[in-house]
Amino acid sequence: MKELIKGNEALAEAAIIAGCRHYFGYPITPQNEITAYMAKRMPEVGGVFVQAESEVASINMVFGAAAAGVRVMTTTSSPGFSLMQEGVSYLAAAHLPCVLANIMRGGPGLGNIAGSQGDYFQAVKGGGHGDYRLIVLTPAYVQEMIDFTILAFDLADKYLIPVLILTDGIVGQMVEPAEFPKDYKPNFYDKSWALTGAKGRPKNVVRTLWLDDYGVENNNIKLQQKYARIKAEFVMYEEFMTEDAEVILVAYGTPARICKAITKKLRNEGYKVGTFRLQSAFPFPEYRLMELALEKHVKGFLVVEMSAGQMVEDVRLSVRDYKPVNFYGRMGGVLPEERKIIEYTLDMLKGKVEVN
Amino acid sequence: MEKVLKNKIIQTFIEVEPERCKGCLLCVYECPEGVIDVSNKFNSKGWIYVEPLFNEKCTGCKKCAMVCPDLAIKVFLGQEVIAGPTD
Amino acid sequence: MELKLIFDKPKTMTDTKTHYCPGCGHGVLHRIVAEVIDELGIKDRVIGIAPVGCAVTAYDYWDIDMCEAAHGRVAAVATGLKRARPDAIVFGYQGDGDLAAIGLAETIHAANRGELITIIFVNNATYGMTGGQMAPTTLVGQVTKTSPKGRNPNNFEGYPLRVAEMIAMLEAPVYVERCMVTSTESVFNTKRAIKKAFTLQMQGKGYSFVEVLSGCPNEWHINPVEANRWIEEEMTKFFPLGVFKDKYPEIK
């Protein structure tokens, strides 16, 4: 039964439904609703809520709880997520499952508290040190804040990897109808590697340092094999009216909703426009984008982001030079304007190769 | 050290494991009886290790083992019952 | 002759020879912690957290569940671990760079929250692993790689941090003591302190903190025996030994 829920709170309750009983957070707008919600809700379900002294501390508390084998989450926003990068690198290196969320705000620096997408590189290309990736899911709807968070906990345990919910402050702050799954049963995986006290078994060690010659390389090989397996096993995106589209708008998060609305509008005026929406930024839907680029009916792509253009690079890598890939974005938490998107789309429909 | 009690001989002595000793000499200065001292031999790591040169003076007080950072010293207590006055 | 071994390796210690320098206090302290774990019978319940520093590979020497924390974050990792495994006995083992420099915030806040953990703080007045730099606990006048003319407060290099006293000022901690490992007597005393700290955690009484003055002959450029004497004569002047807080004196 649908109810009106705020994105942030939907994410928080979804984590509880997914069996998360440990949450470590720190206040930062625009995700404060999550910490407030967890402070109230966790005790109700016999869980643990800790407000840490910093994001550096909260991510390392997540490390400790994850090492103990429980489902654990922390959420933050851009500047806070920057502070967590070292911890994220350690979590990835130690193959520890957990769920993270970055409800992005305007940046760089203190920026502002408006929704933004300036952290794509940090999230997808690895903001911490070393060769590691995170599974990155990009919800654009409150319903997806629920579904993707529940999925995130399963993916984290399945692949022993931190999973990041990456969205903008608008989706976090937005209230819209959404529904929690009825009697969802989390699928708890075997975690015999966890630290519980070596009772009746040899000791477990969770480590990321190897000083011998090939220890760290071996760990990296294991990580790369994992990422290859992830890329082979799943990727998430939505295609909206792309079957015969001549110009395809590519976006994720709030900009993707704007693009879908424009797609409907231009379709009503007889223009063949479509929207391709990322639901996972890693794995990135590179093959599908390339396939679309090879379609005769496709003239080109217009990537729309709330940033100076970050995801656009991955689109260009996927599409190569089969078709032109243009970009329009607004920075500092400003929403991309509908009329500009329409203007550039119409230019491309008329065959203009370079727009903006 | 060997002590003869009414009907028992008690013997206390130590053993040093050469490969664990790093020649820090903390035990040499801690031992109240001067049992241990530097040997003139090297272990495989190149450390000059210590040896119990005067085990007969060892009282089994375990001080050497308490201050040893590398668990290189084992302390033994030997007992042997002998015929003796049984009053 | 029936031979009995009256001093041997604690069960909780592995056979691995340690990498520590000759005369290093870590070696002694590792054995003390292992003896305490044996005597309290918690080998299968205890989880240790190693710092970044000389003791980073402590999991090679203790036969217990362990993890490494990022530099300075032991107290935060311990918080997460203990909250996730309340029935485990969780202890952090840190050097002075790890705890008192980069990790001071995590240390103080975990203590202030009264987390049910035990922190063992090895104070050897230097950064050992990285080659002997000035630490927050380096004494005034002490020469290190990064205070080549001796630590000088007039040069804005500050004074040594008395962490045990700082922790003792907080409300939540139940037991705070500073001891040392320089002689048999001090080893006994340190063992008593650590055993009490673990016992308080086992009884759920609260947060316990034991600071241990420990020799680093290699970086102090003196031999191990002189190092211990330097601790006893110089370090204790600035870092007095003793119990700074004890809410449960009746518990031994």
Task: Report what the structure shows.
The complex is a heterotrimer of chains A (356), B (87) and C (252). By secondary structure, chain A is of the alpha/beta class. Helix content of chain A is 40%, strand content 19%. In chain A, the strands form 3 sheets. A 7-stranded mixed sheet of chain A has the order 3-2-4-5-7-6-13, with helices on both faces. With 87 residues, chain B is mostly beta strands. Chain B has 2 helices and 5 strands, in the order ββαββαβ. Chain C has a single domain, classed as Rossmann fold (3-Layer(aba) Sandwich), CATH 3.40.50.970. Helices cover 35% and strands 18% of the residues of chain C. Chain C has a 7-stranded mixed sheet with strand order 3-2-4-5-7-6-8, sandwiched between helices. In chain C, helix 2 packs parallel to helix 4 (104-113) and helix 3 (96-102) packs across helix 4. The mean pLDDT of chain C is 97. Chains in contact: A-C, B-C. At the A-C interface, helix 3, helix 5 and strand 9 of A face strand 2, strand 3, helix 2 and helix 4 of C. Strand 5 (73-81) of chain B pairs antiparallel with strand 1 (2-7) of chain C, so a sheet runs across the interface.
Q: How many separate domains of chain C?
A: 1
Backbone structural class of chain A? alpha/beta
Quaternary structure of the protein: heterotrimer
Estimate percent helicity of chain A. Answer: 40-55%
> What is the CATH first-level class name of the largest domain in chain A?
Alpha Beta
Q: Which strand order spans the largest sheet of chain A, edge to edge or round the barrel? A: 3-2-4-5-7-6-13
Give me the secondary-structure topology:
The complex is a heterotrimer of chains A (356), B (87) and C (252).
Chain A: E1 3-6, H1 7-17, E2 22-25, H2 32-44, E3 48-51, H3 55-67, E4 72-76, H4 78-83, H5 85-93, E5 98-104, H6 120-124, E6 135-137, H7 142-159, E7 162-168, H8 169-173, E8 175-178, E9 205-206, H9 215-233, E10 237-240, E11 247-251, H10 254-268, E12 273-278, E13 280-282, H11 286-294, E14 300-305, H12 311-319, E15 325-329, H13 338-349
Chain B: E1 2-4, E2 8-16, H1 26-30, E3 36-42, E4 48-52, H2 63-67, E5 73-81
Antiparallel strand pairs in B: 1-2, 2-5, 3-4
Chain C: E1 2-7, H1 25-40, E2 46-50, E3 65-68, H2 74-84, E4 89-95, H3 96-102, H4 104-113, E5 118-123, H5 163-168, E6 175-180, H6 184-202, E7 208-213, H7 217-220, H8 224-238, E8 242-246
Parallel strand pairs in C: 2-3, 2-4, 4-5, 5-7, 6-7
Antiparallel strand pairs in C: 6-8
Helix pairs in contact in C: 1-6, 2-4, 3-4
